Amino acid sequence: MLLQPSKPFRSAHFFVFAASLFIFLNLVLYISIYPLTGEEDRRCIVAQEMLLSGDYFHPTVFNVPYYKKPPMHNWLIVLPNLLDGVVDRVSARLVSIIALLLTGWSLYLFLLKKHADKALIGFLAVTTNYLMLCEYGNLAETDIIITLFTSLSFIIYLSNPLQIRSVFISSLFMGAGLLTKGLSPLYFYPAVLLVACFTQQNRLRKLSLIGLHFLMSLLLPAVWLWLYSLEGSLSDLLRIFTAEVSEKSTGSVGAFLWHLIYFPGKIFIVLLPWSLILAFAFKRRIVKDEIYWSSLLMFLISLAIFTVSPESRDRYLMPAFPAFAILCSYHIDAKIVIRKSLQRMVFSILAILAAGCAVFGAIEGYFLQAAVFIVLALVIGLLLPRPLRLTHFASVLAAFMLVTYMQGLFFYRAQIRFDHQPGAREIAAHITEPLPVVAHHRVSNRTGLFLQAELQRPVFKTPRENFSEYYYLSYPAGVDSSAENFLTVPYPEDHNRDLILQLKEINCLNNSKITP
Q: Quick check: 18 and 24 in contact, CB under 8 A?
């Protein structure tokens, strides 16, 4: 007969499930209308061109080899789109949302097995810090993906560092991390090596298995590089990727000194509310085991590396955030009951802010968002007199942060940022001949992405030698006066960024020069 979990653990499971559902619903709410931002378009273009070409081993952007990132994230974006062959913003972003929740659940289950009393804090700290939850939790960026793979590699190794099976599975996830961004060793090997060196028992075996781990972690990247070399330039790939990594370690002396000052403070901010909770509820007397020391070293070494790198950004440290969450689970007592005076002060401020957001939303005509803020203010008001444990208090803070960000800043950006998809659809409707499509180099990558998805064929940024006639998409300054204009799609904020579609012919008999 199977043993049933005790009531506290059943309650914890339900709380984690409810929190996961709340996070998921909030993160997916506006991803269908939020325009692509940052590097999202590049991640999607590579995946879309994989689907169009059927070549999944040679990443390209507008049919030009792309060397700066390995393809694992693109493969994950491809998976949900294999049937229809169209990469869209929703499916691409769902990959990141699922990765965020999987990171939280894997850490929760790991701590539940090792230190059950620490599992809930660990889950909350890794899924509800500001940077992972709000800024990147629902964007098609690589950072959440590499965080998942690095976290899985870390916790599977720590589950049994003396077992070859654990080392092998951990190395596979490390290899997946290397195939995502190539920086996973920064977060993993220095910490586990130091802990192994200072371990009295089984030191030699641990060090040997870490070496084996490193060699096996190169297996997946080596297979991809071999497949890439069959039809691609491996020297160009390695040269440009190495240059991409080295550029992040350069900078002037002034930039270096400024980075030393502001970067740790910025990390403190993006880890809110947990950095603040850890500072005010820090428990000193704890039992420090191998999991603790590995997590502490992983976070501190990674923080030190990126603090002294002037070109680094806060999101580069994200794969070390699960280690920070483990530290929170050790140093924060989840059973602490918040002082009534503190809780009333904090919740009163939050309720007033939510009410103010509701008033502002109603004035601007966003009545649905205003209603959400009214409900949020009422719920926080109802919690004012109720004594809450630290976990529930922190959860309210995280829920307020998430709802305010999604219904406020995220929704606002979705309204004001220009969406290139409608224009791409209009252009695609006027491309009736099976001719190549070439876009001027200044045309947005997002327009090119949506155009490829609508046409289900490639878009080029440079015409090929065998093009005698092609559709040409340009800005007013780049049009060819001798070509026929088909369509003008206006850009609402700047006439100089209108999109103009032309039909362009090349007189190959007269050896006319091909120009984009």
A: no
Q: Which residues contact 123 (CB under 8 A, 6 or more apart)?
A: 16, 19, 104, 105, 107, 108, 111, 325
Q: What is the 3-state secondary structure (H, E, C) of 440-482?
A: CCCCCHHHHHHHHHHHCCCEECCCCCCCCEEEEEECHHHCCCC
Give dist(CA 338, CA 280) in Å, integer.
Answer: 11
pLDDT digits (tens, 9 = 90+) for 451-474: 999 999 999 988 888 888 899 999
Distance CA 436, CA 287 (A): 66
Query: How many Å apart are CA 211 and CA 203, to the nearest integer?
Result: 12
- Structure-token pair, residue 510: 């007269």
- Whether residue 66 is found in the same domain as residue 194: yes
Of 416, 442, 474, the last residue of a domain is: 416
395 and 354 housed in the same domain: yes
CB-CB contact of 298 with 191 (8 Å):
yes
DSSP assignment of 263-284: HHHHHHHHTTTHHHHHHHSB--
Asked whether residue 104 falls in the same domain as residue 226, the answer is: yes
Q: What are phi and psi of 268, to 5 degrees?
A: -60, -40
DSSP-derived 3-state class of residue 438: strand
410 and 431 fall within a common domain: no
The reply to whether 181 and 249 lie within a common domain is yes
Of the three residues 312, 331, 350, the one that is the final residue of a domain is 331
Non-local (6+) Cβ contacts of 116 within 8 A are 9
* Stretch 111-118: mean pLDDT: 93
Tokens 């327009």 label which residue? 447
Non-local CB neighbours of 391 within 8 Å, separated by 6+ positions = 15, 120, 121, 124, 334
Q: Establish if 5 belongs to a structural domain.
A: no
Contact assessment for residue 460 and residue 437, using Cβ atoms and an 8 Å cutoff: yes
Residue-wise pLDDT tens digits, 146-164: 999 999 999 999 999 999 9
Beta-bridged to residue 503, according to DSSP, are 471, 484
Q: In this structure, are 381 and 486 located in the same domain?
A: no
Whole-number Cα distances in Å, 348 to 337, 344, 392: 18, 6, 16
The predicted model scores a pTM of 0.92
Domain membership flag for residue 176: yes
Same domain flag for 432 and 410: no
Distance CA 232, CA 515 (A): 26
Instruction: Determine the pLDDT at residue 2.
Output: 36
Cα–Cα dist 504/479, whole Å = 10
Would you say residue 177 lies in a domain?
A: yes
Residue-range definition of the domain harbouring residue 490: 421-510
